[in-house]
Amino acid sequence: MKDDNIIHTPVEGIVVEKVGNEALVLDTARGKIHQLNSTAAYIWSLLDGVRSDHDIAQMVSSEFDIDLETASKDVRTTLQVLTELEVLKATGR
Amino acid sequence: MKPTEIHSDETVLLKTLGIGIRIRCKDSGLREILTRNFRAMQTKAIVEPDLDYTVERTSSGSITLHRDGLLPVRARMEGEFVYNLEHDVVIELQRRRRDLYFLHAAALEFNGKGLILVAQSGHGKSTTAWGLVHAGFRYMSDELAPIAPSSLKIHPYPHAICLKKIPPQSHPLPGNVVRTERAFHIPTTSIPTGVWKRPIPIQVACFVRYDPQARTPSVDSIGPGEAGARLYANALNPLAHRSSGLTEAARIARSCRSFRVSTADLRQSAELIQKLMTEEA
User: Fold this and answer.
1) How many angstroms away from the CA of B96 is the closest CA of chain A?
2) DSSP letters of B118-161?
3) Is the ipTM of this complex over 0.85?
């Protein structure tokens, strides 16, 4: 599936709290807490259930003034890790 | 008007976090242990105890703890009995003071500001607290730091300092220490700087870990994100609060400076933490 067709959303039971420019993600179902750095927290803040991974990469590219390819790689890596941690799930558009 | 319970020879009355506790105990040896362990919480009279315990020592020497709503808890020795009692008190405090955010942490006062030492059991909270009360800090707790989320102030829970091991020679045990099979309980009357009994704002949070291999203590500043995660991991009643207690952990983390402290020599470790408090002031 292409990035512009993938939408990531938090799974059920996730509580998020912004702390400075970072964020804490509490997985109430598994009793785990994850600390997101500022970039991951920014990416997380863009997950609105509508934006695709590609949309988010474009916004990251613009926000951090980096090329789209680098931004796409960062976004993909971040979302993949968070999906492996079972705090995000991927769906098709 | 409810009846007033006056302290009798066979009763120990305590008040902590606004909760009145009556412990009826005919065994003078056990009462002495209770008195030394809870001296700073003792009160002469309470109106209708919130927690009402009865302690009995059987002919075989075992000690049974009774409370309404609690199945009898039997201990073979004094240390286990003190543990059983405190365990129940701390759980009941969490049930009855759901407004407070309970952290598994030591708490001390320095120049009117609060310090919390956050760590899992066995990582050096109590020993570090014992070192700090010899460096100008006043004692609030070595185990339980109840924090009011509305004011972000720490409340005292000043039971005896409970050391699992003999402290270093530089900070010897006092003569009136209570020795049980589990721990050394240092009565608050032996704390050189005394007990701080009022809520105070948190200035510094130290996440401590004793490193027996280290020659000197070390400190690293950490951001509110890591501090919030660590605070949450050491919260005892997060689910009593909104957002599963994450909001409170984040608020506390944002309100103070946080450090990861690797402790070593006790005097040097206390001086290092004292310096942090002084710099932050």
Assistant:
1) 24
2) E--TTSSHHHHHHHHTTTTPEEEESSEEEEETTTTEEPP----E
3) no
